[in-house]
Structures are given as C-alpha cells and as structure tokens.
Amino acid sequence: MRMRKIFRHLHLWLSVPFGLIITLICFSGAMLVFETEITQLCRPDLYYVEEVKAAPLPAHRLMEMAAAKLPDGTEATGLTVQADPRRSWQVSLSQPRRASLSIDPYTGEVLGRNERAPFFSVMFRLHRWLLDSARPDRGLFVGKLIVGVSTLLFVVILVSGIVVWWPRNRKALTNSLKIPLRKGTARFQYGLHVAGGMYTLVFLLVMALTGLTWSFSWYRDGVYKIFGADASQNQTHASSANREKDAASESAKEASKNRQTEADGQSRRPDTRTTTYAHWQRVYEELSAQNKGFEQITIGDGNASVSWGKWGNQRAADRYAFDPESGEITSITRYKESPRAGKLRGWLYSLHVGSWGGIPTRILYFIAALVGATLPLTGYYLWIKRLLRRKSGRQ
Length: 395
Hints:
Layout: H1 2-32, H2 35-42, H3 44-47, H4 59-67, E1 76-82, E2 89-93, E3 100-103, E4 110-113, H5 118-129, H6 142-165, H7 170-176, H8 185-211, H9 217-226, H10 235-238, H11 240-264, H12 274-277, H13 280-290, E5 296-299, E6 303-307, E7 318-322, E8 329-333, H14 340-353, H15 359-394
Antiparallel strand pairs: 1-2, 1-5, 2-3, 3-4, 5-6, 6-7, 7-8
C-alpha cells in the first residue's frame, strides 16, 4: 500500500506540470501518422499521372528534361522510380536539403515541387520542438529539450499509472477495462483514463522509448550499445533533427524563389550531367529485373538502392554501386549485410511511427496517440473534481 501511494503521488505530480505538453506531443504525432496518404489524396496532380502509357521514357531522358527546368545553382542529383505505374517519379535536387520534383515518367512533364503541407509542417515542429527552432546565438535548443524531458517523464507516468491502477483480481481487471457510457461524466472520464491507458500502454511506451533517441544523445548511444550497434556509425540519426529543421525553412524560401524565377522566364543553366545520366536506364532495367516485387528504386550518381516496403524495417534496402561511365554494377550490399547501426536506426523509426506492420499498425498507433493525448486531460478532470469535492466537504 505504501508503494502504491508513492507511485500515486509520482503519477500525479509529474502529470500536473507536463500533462498539456504530453497532450500536444501525442496529438501532433497522431496527425502525422497518415501524412503521406493525406498529402497524396489532396495533391493527386503531383503524385499520380493522368495517363499510363506502354512504357516510361528512359531515365536519362527524364533527368535531362528535369534538369532543364532548374534554376542556376540547382542540380538534379537522383531519381526515385515507383513500382506502381500510376505514380509519378521523383527527381532529387541538390538544394535545398531533401527537395525533390515530381515528374510524369511517360511525358517528362515536371508536375511540381514536393513540399510538406503547412499543416503538417506545424504538426511536425510541434511534435519535435514545440514550434521552437535552433538559433546560432542560442546554444540551448529549448523546445527540443522540453519535448525530450516530457517524453521521458511520460514513460514514468505510464509505468506509475499501471502500478496505481493495476487490479488485484480478475473481476477487478475486467471492470477496469470497461469504459461506462451511461453512468455519468465522472465515470466516463475515469473509465477513459484508466481503461484507455491500459489498452494503449504498450503502444505509448514503444512510441516514447523510441522517440527519446531523437531527443538525447546519451540515451541514443545507450540504446545502440544495448543492441550491440556501433554508435560512431550513428551520425545520420544524431543529426536528423537539424537537417529536417533546416529543410523546412529552406524549402519554403527556395520554392518561392524558384516560382518567381519560372514566372519571369529567367535563364536556366545548361545540362552538364548528360554523361552521368547516360547509363541510369541500364542500371534501372538491371535492378528491376533482379528485384521482382520491389516498391521503389532510387538511383544517384554512382549508387542505387532497392526497397520493398514489406513489414518490418521500412527503411530496409539493398544498396548498389555502379560505374557512372558504363552503368556496370560494381558492388552490392544486401540489407542483411548492412551495419547493425543502420538497421537499428531504421527499426527505431519504423517502431516509432508504426509503419513496421503496414496500415493495421499505423491505425493502432493513430488511435493510441489520440488516446494518449486525452489521458492528461481526463487526469486533470479527475484531479480537479477530487479537489472540489474535498473543498466542499470541508465547508
């Protein structure tokens, strides 16, 4: 009983100051679960072609056509080919970071720039940094720190909640898993708080524990060490927040600049990479023939990757190196032979966003994140109601 009382106080006094922040983190995370599908649904002109023809244009020809549309100082650096014949292909750009264009593979028409919708940009920044941003004149990234601390304490709150409300027998367990709908607001809020927390506990813990790897380097290094991965190979994971943060602002500025450039009919740089692109079609044909059932193939300058989008690590891919002058494949690194750090990084991401099990797990994650957002709110309701009841009792 004494232990349960300690955990009850721990659960309450951590939830009171950090509850609203946890609500914002969970809610914004839920909004990001189906970002890709919603974006494609709202912008079919960017992600789907009007007409599927017998065969797409050669890869090198598409790259040349895309390069001719780019402003000075920007190069077409890669091509992502989708297995779905209805989908447009993506041309990666040298700047800003992670920028790309959609192109119709059958006509070579540039459909537009792929940009994150403003709503999802806000949700992402809210989820990761509470809308804060790093500034050179300030060493401490406050928003990122608050999110990290809140997520860490959320783990403690979840565990302490189970200790406090774990039933003593099977009958009590059955009752605690019910959410009464016809017994008044207080009973409903109590049921939603207790039963909702129990139903979503595992999902919320997985999201929180994996999310912490983006908040604290010491935690991330510890996770990598536990799973026997070399932390020194983790530079991509460690710096991902800065890249994504910079990309959001740079992409918007560059998009505005490029639209104005196109409208004014300003000069375009001449294509100087025809030789580099010349053998990309050969590479694509060879990889597609060797990898039946692939989801997408990405080709760059002397390198390529093939992914399948199956259950598990959604970033799993076989990687190839080829001679840019001949298109001959020179080396292959299968996913199973990849460094453990790279595999772990992909697994942590897939576990965090729920993509590891396809649409079913993402639906479960979406529901769990929404329920997680309500837990602090129902907790506040129960706490305030108890305070008012005690106050009225003394009067």
